Each structure stands twice: as C-alpha cells, then as structure tokens.
Amino acid sequence: MRFDIVTIFAGFFAGIFEHGVVRRAMREGLVSIEAHDLRAFTHDRHRTVDDRPFGGGEGMVLKPEPLAEALESLGIRKKAGNRDQGSGIRDRGRGTRDVGTAVILLSAQGCLFTQSMARELAELERVVLICGRYEGVDERINQLYCDMELSIGDYVLSGGELAAAVVVDAVMRLVPGVLGNEASEEFESFGAPDAEIQADVEGVPRSQHGSGGLLDYPQYTRPAEFAGLHAPEVLLNGDHSEIRRWRREQQLRKTLLNRPELLRRAVLSAEDRTILDSLESGWRGES
Which of 39, 99, 110, 189 could bridge 216 with an S-S bond, Cβ 3.0-4.6 Å? Predict the structure, then answer.
C-alpha cells in the first residue's frame, strides 16, 4: 500500500515513521510512505504557498496552484465532472481516477475519522493526504481533487501533519501482514463483532469477545500484585469461559463510563443489555 503526503513540512515525517510496526512494514515492502514538499511546486523566489483569504479575516490560506501542481505530479487528475463527494470511500472521486486511490484533505471541517473508515482505506492501493495549514486550503482544491475531508477529532491543530501521521498509522496496521498477529486487529477497541471473527482454533475456547464497536477491556500482566493492587482473580484461574464473561462486562463498563455514545451503534446481545442494565442500576444506587 502506498501513502503520499503533501505538506509544507516534509521534514516533520523524517523520524515519525522510523519506529515499531510502521518501520517493519516499510522494510518488508508492505507499505511505502513518501512526504512531498509543497514549496517545491511554487515558482516565485519566496516559494509562496499561501495568501490572504478573500472576504477578509485572520490568517492565511494555502493557495490552489501549488497544491494542484503537486497533485498532478503524483498522477492525481481532477474528478470527472467535478461531482460531489459520495456516501462511501469507494463512491468518491469516480470517473477518470483509479478507484484504488483516495485523495483526502485533512481538515477540522472534515468528517470524523473512525476505525471503520480506517478499514475501508486499508482496502485501497493508495491514499494521498493533503495537510492543511494556517486557516486551511482553498476550497477549490477540495472540490476538484479531493474524495473526502477527514478530521481526527473535535479540536483544531496547527496543521494536518499530525493528523496525517495518525491516519497512516491507523490504516497501515490493518494492511495484511503488517501486524505480527492478524487477530490483534479483531480483538481491540472498535473491533469486529463475534459474528465476523473466525471460529476458535484447535478446539481451544476463545477467552475474549470481539468488541463489536465497544472499547477494549483492561489488561493485566505480571506481577499479580503491584503497589497493593491485585490482578483480578478471574484472569488467573484458567477458566476461559469465565474470563470471556468478565472481559465482556469490562468492555461494557468502560464504554458506558468513557464513551456511552458508542453503545447506540454497537452490536449488543441480550446478555450484553442485561449487563448494562445491571451496571446502570448499580451506578444509580450509588448516586
């Protein structure tokens, strides 16, 4: 899989991808990542990439000409018919563009980047990321070239470089072969529900549920006692069914406490709903 990043700070990425699974994936040829300096596509002695916004206002806006030239140099053509963005990643930017490519503008005005979106992007062959700066990017670049706008959260960054690194990391780790254990992606926060996970191997009962859109359960390791706190006894007794039940309760507990809005779209069983009712009743009793 290939990632191209268009930025005015190409040096920002010099060290950020030289660690962990990203470095290994690049070394093994599973992923390639290249940052492209937007200033290389300017033609004045000051290498100007920004200008004042029409209509007034604070800050500066990235100019359309250098961005268009940078994208064209990467083989990205204008969207056929300048159509509006579609409802899904594979519906966007259709026409003359290779359907295995997505061009993404990183922007505080974009739709929220999620794990399910990362899975969709991981199925593509190429992702081109445009890093906004200052007050943003001339909207015509978005209209002419971009398949979608993405935001990594409800806050404002000084530029899209950090967001680009987040998107690359989240997507790259879902590319087949990148993670040492392919099941790691299934059993984690925002992972797949049980119905989408392969059956247990060699008859060993699985000790965890697929998250089905919930947060992950808390983890413990040796020593069993630390600073007066003990790891839960259920994790030490070797009973996979008990461990699995406890972990599911903890997933629900943590999600209810930290991200209750996720429960509205999570895949929940009747047993899950019973556990949630019990948790909520217990908390109401304590208040």
Answer: 189
